[in-house]
Write a structure and sequence with these properties.
Number of helices: 11
Number of domains: 2
CATH architecture of the largest domain: 3-Layer(aba) Sandwich
Structural class: alpha/beta
Oligomer: single chain
Amino acid sequence: MTLRPPLLVTMGDAVGIGPEIVVKAFAAGELADALVVGDPAVVRRAGAPMTAVVDAPADRAGVPPGCLPVLAPPGLPAGLAALPWGVVDARCGAAAARCIEHAVVLVRQGQGAAIVTAPIHKEALAAAGLPYPGHTEMLQALAADTPGAAPPVRMMLANDELRVVLVTIHQSVRRAIDAITFDAVLDTLRIAHRAARAWLAAPPRIAVAGLNPHAGEGGLFGDEEQRVIAPAIAAAQAEGIAASGPFAPDTVFMRARRGAFDLVVAMLHDHGLIPVKYLGVEQGVNVTLGLPFVRTSPDHGTAFDIAGQGVADPASLVAALRMARRLAVLS
């Protein structure tokens, strides 16, 4: 029997809740069209009753019912399943990165429909010597066809009520403000528009949140809105993008939730993510826009404080799997 290319689910940090929520999603019937890229011993320790180790995605066709198929990429550190839960370890960072790298190779070869990433730990990634502050930047680099030619990408957090795309992500607020340029805002609007057109029947209505209180109040509380953000919105409108604003960031998310806009572009990481997460972490999905493949993930981290206790909620991972499935069909 020949199966369609599966969703590729990376296991995340081996001592976080990633492996556990993957196993729970499988038990709930949400991984029937998926393959785990990770360490089989780690997956078994997380509670998988039966695993089937495969060498390639196509080998899923021979996996018996009730077995979770796991593909172990070459180069995984040894002994991951013996490490203590919830402790930052460079070996876990290296393993998480290796799983992501291999998943990207597979999806770009057409052997995967999309990538769904379980949470990684940024300190573990850094301890392993990886120069990326998170998934988004790593995937961007891996998507480059040639060195230095990484595609522009943006992070979107979404649930059934709200979609938010970020201009800046994993950097200090002081540095992020300097990174809010005309080009950065315009590129974000272009990426958001292009991605959302695949999901919506009509051209997406994009609201742009300001940076400063009251969107600068006409320059009284900062001039970034007048000097940078508004000109980028005008340029996007000239290209046929239905963008509007800048709006006060303390009210625009409520307007979008009530249906006035299809998505919101926010300038800063916490400006944009707090409203979505407040509506329910268990339903939030992180989507990387601009990649040449679909990538989603839960909107939470490794939860080291509860790792290994069997109490992690897989709902956000399930939402990420379902969204990846839908987006893979539309892409």
